[in-house]
Amino acid sequence: MREFVSVAMKTVRVKKGWRFKINGTPSPEIENRLEVKHVAATPSKIPFIKPRLLARSGDQVKIGSPLFEDKKNPGIKFLSPGSGKVVAVNYGPRRVIEEIIIALDADESCETFETVDAKTLSRLDRKTLILKLMAGGVWPFIRQLPYREIANPKLKPASILVSLDSADPFQPSPEVCYNNQRSFFDMGVQALRKLAERVTIIQSAKNRSIDWLNQLVTHQVLGDYPANDPGVVLYHTRQSPADNHAWYINGQDLLLIGEFLSTGLYPIQRVISFSDGTIENSKHIKTRLGIKLNELYSSHENMDHLRWIVGGVLSGYTSHADGFLGMYETSVMVIEEAQKSEFFGFARPGSDKLSNSRTVLSALSSAPLKVNSDMHGEERPCINCGYCAKICPVDILPQFTYKSIYADEIEEALAHGLLDCVECGLCSFVCPSKIELSELLIDAKHMYRREINQGA
Ligand code: SF4
Ligand code: SF4
User: Fold this and answer.
1) What pLDDT score was predicted for residue 373?
2) What is the pLDDT of residues 399-416, one digit of tens each?
3) Range 46-75 burial, b when 16+ CB lie within 10 A, else e
4) For residues 358-372, average pLDDT
5) Same domain for 239 and 143
6) Is residue 320 one of the residues assigned to a domain?
7) SS3 221
8) Average pLDDT of the chain?
């Protein structure tokens, strides 16, 4: 019998943010892309871990075999998303492990773990559950604010936020991800209820199309990107300082936890949204964790002129056709590399320029625009226009915060709300001086975390 009853839902209104005006929003159509040749784990894309390899090049692995663990938290293991042979371990600068690549074999054999049903789960104590999730490789899907690192299993947070969707239309739609997944979702929520005092389930008001899910939503969010980011919701709802260290998980990752407990297998399916800016190719793809990016896109042209953006148009990272999907990422976008800079581009009227500024012509139209990688100008000094502060969803004053960072006044940057930064990228996007504000703020946050950890 299902344990959950309808909850009194709160509405969170987020006034600042940005409504996407970009061509190629993925359609609800789903394509299956499960039969692939290679998958990889990408340790360098997981913040703050120090990976220690548990598999070597040439090893034979199954789905769920350990590939590496976090040296600083040895129980936190990362398991193989495929069965086959480890064909390469690629290192980046300073011997950072970038990728552990597996050439898949036909049989897809799996490691097996003990299954848990709802009744057994209700009797499990918190510590046993945590050990189970760590051994099964699904613990890293739970992350911790404000630094967005893997949750520390030794702590108990005041709350866990589950984010079901995004106000970014280039992220997968709940309709596609959660339909027919109720049993895994329920199992996942039941597990989270053992880990924290409160479980907050967040969804956009506009996406409430699945009845059983609606009954579980505790907070519906009104607002533009990044309104339903867990950090933004927390900023607008937090009740005590303990909430600053809340944990959070993406709804799709919660399904993976539910699936792992129910089936005893390491779950590998992932629904992603894919866009190349055209209507015909922009859709949802049911695929698997760690897929090679060029196996997602069947364009047979030379792909050298393309830039691959993984994990969000404004907050994701740049990759390439031979790169792999990171474990947290749920969207891939392909845009054209700008071939040449526009001559005096900053002075042109800009009817086709993607911008939030009222000074470019495109602001007069709501028509979506095609994007490429052109920055339309070089970095210049701050002109104190205030656009960055006007758009920041958590009321940081990025123009003053970055100046404090440059002046090495970290206390001042903290007073401006540095740790509330949700890493959405909007301040960089709107800055007419092309200052990489979000990158500077994120780097400063990471540096501060390293400092306090060293001092601890
Ligand atoms: S400072 Fe920039 S990146 Fe951080 S939350 Fe505000 S707008 Fe987003
Ligand atoms: S948007 Fe850029 S130029 Fe304008 S105040 Fe912020 S940092 Fe300065």
Assistant:
1) 55
2) 999 999 999 999 999 999
3) bebbebebbbeeebebbbbbbbbbbeebee
4) 55
5) yes
6) no
7) strand
8) 89
| Residue 64 clears pLDDT 50, i.e. is over it | yes
Return the ligand 1 atom nearest residue 388 CA: 7
* 148, 259: one domain: yes
Instruction: Tell me the pLDDT tens digit for each residue of 18-61.
Output: 998 787 788 888 999 888 999 999 999 999 999 999 999 999 99
Q: Is the pLDDT of residue 278 over 90?
A: no
Torsion of CA 418, 422, 423, 427, to 10 degrees: -70
Give 231's contacts (C-beta < 8 A, 6+ positions apart). Answer: 145, 146, 248, 394, 420, 421, 422, 423
Same domain for 138 and 92?
Answer: no
* 442 pocket-lining for ligand 1 (C-beta < 6 Å): no
- Give the mean model confidence (pLDDT) for residues 266-289: 91
- Regarding the beta carbon of 385 and ligand 2, being less than 6 Å apart is answered yes
The pTM for the full model equals 0.91
Q: Is residue 271 part of a domain?
A: no
How far is CA 307 from its chain centroid?
19
CB 394 less than 6 A from any atom of ligand 1: yes
Clarify whether residues 121 and 219 are in a common domain: yes
Q: Is the CB of residue 426 below 6 angstroms from any atom belonging to ligand 2?
A: no
CB 158 within 8 A of CB 240: yes
Q: Which atom of ligand 1 is nearest to the CA of 315?
A: 3
Q: Whose CA is nearest to atom 6 of ligand 1?
A: 392
Residue 353 covered by a domain: no
Enumerate the β-bridge partners of residue 306: 336
* Residue 328 in this model has a pLDDT that exceeds 60: yes
Whether residues 118 and 259 fall in one domain: yes
pLDDT of residue 347: 41
Task: Give the mean pLDDT of 224-252.
Answer: 94
- Joined together, the tokens standing for residue 97 give 């492990």
User: Of 266, 303, 263, 307, which Cα lies nearest the Cα of 288?
Assistant: 266
The partner residues of 317 in beta bridges, in order of sequence, read 310
Residues 63 and 184 in one domain: no
* Residue 305 located in a structural domain: no
Q: Is the pLDDT of residue 209 over 90?
A: no
Whether residues 213 and 117 fall in one domain: yes
Supply the CATH number for residue 96's domain: 2.40.50
Verify that 49 and 121 share a domain, yes or no.
no
* Pocket lining: 425 vs ligand 1, CB cutoff 6 Å: yes
Domain that holds residue 56: 38-104
Separation between Cα atoms, residue 310 and residue 324, nearest integer Å = 9
- Rounded to 10 degrees, what is the CA torsion of 379, 380, 386, 391? -10
Residue 188: predicted pLDDT: 98
In total, how many domains does the chain have? 3
Q: Is the C-beta atom of 380 inside 6 A of ligand 2? A: no
Residue of minimum CA distance from atom 1 in ligand 2: 431
